[in-house]
Target: Nuclear pore complex protein NUP43
Amino acid sequence: MAGSGDLQLYRYPQSKSVDAVRWLHPLSAFDRFIATALYDTDDASSSVDIHSLNLNSDPENPNRSKPLLRPRCSWPSPSRISSLRTSEIPQKHVVAALSTFAGYVHFLFMDPIDVSVELELSTDEDQPLHNASVSIVDLQDGGHECLSVGEDGRVNLVSVGEGRLDTQLVHDNRGLVSYTAVKWGSQAEFATGGFGFGLQWWDQRKPGGLVSQLKGNWAQGNVTGIVHSIDIHPSRKHISVVGGSSGTVFAWDLRWQQQPILLSGVGVAGQSTFESEIWEIQYDIHAQSSSISSTSSTKILPVMFCSEDGILGVIEQGKPPIELLTEACAINSLDIDPQNPSDIICGLEWESIGILMRPKEAALVY
Model:
């Protein structure tokens, strides 16, 4: 355990590489579960493992005991997992969607009683959904539809039917441009990103789907970066926040499409510059929960990021970044618990799961 002020960090060593971590939507009022994508370098096998988290592992000393992380079940993946997302089908199942480097997308449906994988659905084994690695998937709230993008330049929509998956090719640029990130903005809209810090906004209700683009010619001639992660706030779908190469974090407001707001990276005055890849970014709902109603619609809400150089931090527009955690290895993945936004899980490159807990009394103000 490591602590910094009121922050508490617990590390849980694993015997395999941790490729992705995600909170599962609660199966009951008293249980908390975590899904992890693990990769065994010794035999080149991959799996999704479900762990239960018991915050009071020692009832006699609840303030001094380390939370207990216990394996519950495991699902073997046919190839290495490239991304993992979770959601919930109301009153039915908890759902996990994952993509692989072999071009497939899989859905796992968790039994809410015994916390096991009750059903697994996969895209066509004879015909991969993508001709190359699937970069990332994003699962829509409600768990019925999933977007996948890949190195082959395809954007696919995967829908859950009765015991089957239905697929639709939304766009195919035949490999001329690879996609590396995707995020739902609404039931019909989503954003994609790729090389050169380029972004695209799609609306499935429009002919052709593509309605707006941000070309990566704004960063003072430096357009060699890659978009690794996109997040869109549910109440402000017009603003996307983006994490990418060379420590770059920026926001794209559809109301001023050609003037992205640079939050971190080369050229941001008065801030320390991160130089490594920003692997994942999420709106920090813990930091913003007390002030979102009074915040101007033009102000970028605080965002959390994790990076190749081992930093887990929060960036707020116009302020220096706050480093919550600094590790000696890369932090490859993060997820903020939507039910308990003070709690964060992260995947550490040195084969560990980290759980960071912040004060719950009030939302943080940075």
User: Anything to note?
Assistant: The longest helix spans residues 285-288. The longest strand covers residues 45-54.
